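[Discussion] Sanity-checking designs against the backbone

I'm trying to build intuition for which residues belong where. Below is a structure token string of 214 positions. I'd appreciate it if someone posts a full sequence so I can compare it with mine line by line.
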């Protein structure tokens, strides 16, 4: 009987030990809520509501110029100038006011002198400019204008002393009517000359010839 009890107790102990589970080292499983990445809980700024009203049109809206060549003041301009023609008696130079048109290709000095080629139109005035002569250029150095004639002016100039004096005088007084010009030097084909036809000394710049207009 005693051996039976001991055997029963031993079997009970073995049964109890088999039911107990040893502790494990693995961490407890995390729940989905624990593995979710943290996100900022700050509220995002709300975008302002889009306006449904149409944008107002700018006032004083101007249309593009249909013909900018006529409306752009920088393309060309008119200018009133004083030019000097000999009277038909060959006694003096007469001041006449003219309107010239200047642009990027024509300066005011050349435009004014070129008027002396034309018939003035007034009954008591004439032109003394040789028809076969031309001006190569008019340049400005300081207060001096330099008039460069084409070489043809030396060929067949028949104006005589009076013609030479009035031709030179009309150019000098026309150019010195511009306040920034005080003297005029004459060249022929870019070279200095002593005279055109042997009557006037052109070796130095000439100042205004007021004695011809008195």
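Best answer:
Here's mine. Compare freely.
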């Amino acid at each position: 009987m005693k051996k039976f009890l001991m055997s029963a107790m031993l079997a009970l102990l073995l049964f109890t030990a088999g039911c107990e589970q040893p502790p494990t080292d693995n961490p407890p499983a995390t729940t989905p809520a624990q593995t979710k990445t943290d996100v900022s809980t700050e509220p995002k700024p709300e975008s302002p509501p889009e306006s449904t009203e149409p944008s107002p049109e700018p006032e004083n809206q101007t249309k593009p110029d249909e013909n900018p060549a006529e409306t752009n003041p920088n393309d060309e301009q008119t200018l009133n100038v004083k030019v000097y023609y000999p009277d038909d008696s060959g006694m003096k130079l007469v001041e006449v006011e003219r309107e010239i048109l200047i642009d990027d290709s024509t300066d005011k000095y050349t435009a004014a002198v070129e008027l002396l080629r034309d018939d003035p139109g007034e009954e008591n005035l004439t032109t003394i400019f040789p028809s076969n002569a031309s001006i190569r250029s008019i340049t400005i150095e300081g207060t001096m204008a330099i008039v460069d004639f084409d070489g043809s002016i030396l060929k067949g100039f028949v104006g005589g002393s009076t013609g030479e004096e009035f031709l030179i005088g009309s150019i000098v007084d026309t150019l010195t009517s511009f306040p920034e010009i005080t003297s005029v030097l004459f060249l022929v084909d870019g070279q200095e000359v002593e005279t055109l036809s042997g009557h006037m000394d052109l070796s130095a710049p000439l100042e205004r010839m007021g004695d011809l207009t008195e």
